[in-house]
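User: tokens in, sequence out, please.
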């Protein structure tokens, strides 16, 4: 196992510090042993989403009062969604629900609630609950409350019957100490589940990139290992699986504060740091609270990677798309998207059809824009506005199936409760 040590800190530019603070404050304004018996699922009485067949823009709370966190995952051609939120106004307990769509997001099954016996989640946008699926097997991982407010250990749950019932799994971190946050989760082609998160198990004063895997569909987890001993402490991590079953993790490094790619070709046994994804050489002593997006596609027997990254480097801050035809070893020149854009994601359909989605910071708040490239990144079509800034939409996600691209995000217009919104594109 190769461990990456990177502990040097450099002072950031004052102007950039102000920008990062504004991004962070904008986010705050928007959010506000596995032997247990199976927890019986509760079926939602909210049937409004079941009737949606041809909508291009739809919203739902999937039986909740509001939605504070969600994840979307594609297995084959089925789209799976897990979401957490309050059951009613003033409720302090976050209920977690699961649903799925078999037609690209046009229709959704009635949502199923994971039993209240599980510890509640403190996940929020940017530090979301996570879901991974392999056939009938599902694993969910989230952060729960610990001794200190806003911090705590992970909780895992697994299902072996397509999400009908759920059992408590072991904590992948092997302990419940400190803070275990910014989780991502993926299933490989052999049915193994892999999880990555940020943690400071040795109390060094900075977060490291931690990893574990499960060989029994989420019931138990192997001894966790450290992939990078010092990383940015509050940016989300992103898993992607290559068509050749290679594991890819995109995360924000410590110095410089650029996004890095680390890979494993042997199901997580060993790891190699591959490259910086956008070698901006951003020197900043702080956390921007912005991760990145990563997807892979097979083209003529070779693997192509597409990524969305954000940088605050003084000369050219913003959101960029890059691709790699060399398995992440080298990347294309960064291509800027949007104006004052953050919180991006990317999806790919075939060789040339690439799509990106992001938050655009405007005078009235954050809106969401979407753009496509039909020639693999050579040129991008004019971005389309999906939401107005007054809708307080944030942290959009983008996935692809044979039915098209599905964009999902949460929005909270005016004084309404936060809802999950989505739109389908061909």
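Assistant: Sequence out:
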């Amino acid at each position: 196992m190769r461990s990456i040590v990177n502990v040097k800190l450099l002072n950031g530019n004052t102007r950039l510090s102000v920008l990062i603070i504004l991004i962070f404050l904008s986010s705050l304004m928007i959010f506000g042993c596995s032997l247990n018996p199976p927890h019986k699922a509760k079926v939602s009485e909210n049937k409004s989403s079941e009737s949606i067949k041809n909508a291009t823009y739809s919203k739902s709370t999937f039986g909740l009062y509001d939605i504070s966190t969600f994840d979307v995952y594609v297995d084959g051609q089925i789209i799976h969604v897990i979401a957490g939120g309050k059951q009613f106004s003033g409720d302090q307990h976050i209920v977690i629900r699961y649903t799925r769509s078999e037609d690209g997001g046009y229709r959704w099954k009635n949502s199923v609630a994971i039993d209240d016996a599980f510890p509640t989640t403190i996940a929020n946008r940017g530090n979301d609950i996570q879901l991974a699926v392999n056939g009938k097997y599902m694993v969910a991982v989230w952060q729960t409350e610990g001794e200190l407010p806003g911090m705590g250990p992970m909780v895992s749950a697994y299902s072996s019957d397509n999400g009908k019932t759920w059992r408590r799994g072991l904590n992948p971190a092997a302990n419940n100490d400190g803070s275990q946050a910014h989780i991502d989760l993926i299933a490989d082609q052999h049915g193994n589940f892999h999880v990555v998160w940020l943690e400071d198990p040795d109390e060094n004063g900075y977060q490291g990139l931690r990893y574990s895997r499960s060989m029994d569909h989420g019931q138990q987890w192997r001894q966790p290992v450290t992939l990078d001993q010092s990383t940015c402490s509050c940016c989300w991590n992103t898993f992607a699986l290559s068509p050749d079953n290679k594991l890819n993790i995109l995360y924000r490094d410590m110095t410089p504060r650029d996004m890095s790619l680390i890979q494993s070709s042997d199901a997580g046994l060993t790891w190699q740091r591959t490259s910086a994804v956008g070698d901006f050489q951003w020197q900043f002593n702080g956390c921007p609270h912005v991760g990145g997006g990563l997807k892979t596609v097979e083209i003529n027997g070779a693997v192509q990677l597409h990524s969305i990254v954000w940088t605050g480097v003084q000369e050219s801050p913003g959101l960029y798309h890059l691709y790699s035809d060399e398995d992440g070893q080298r990347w294309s020149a960064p291509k800027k998207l949007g104006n004052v854009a953050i919180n991006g994601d990317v999806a790919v359909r075939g060789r040339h059809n690439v799509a990106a989605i992001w938050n655009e910071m405007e005078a009235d708040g954050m809106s969401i824009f979407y753009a496509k490239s039909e020639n693999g990144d050579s040129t991008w079509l004019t971005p389309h506005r999906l939401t107005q800034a007054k809708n307080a939409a944030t942290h959009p996600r983008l996935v692809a199936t044979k039915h098209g691209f599905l964009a999902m995000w949460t929005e909270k217009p005016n004084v309404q409760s936060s809802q999950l919104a989505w739109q389908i594109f061909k």
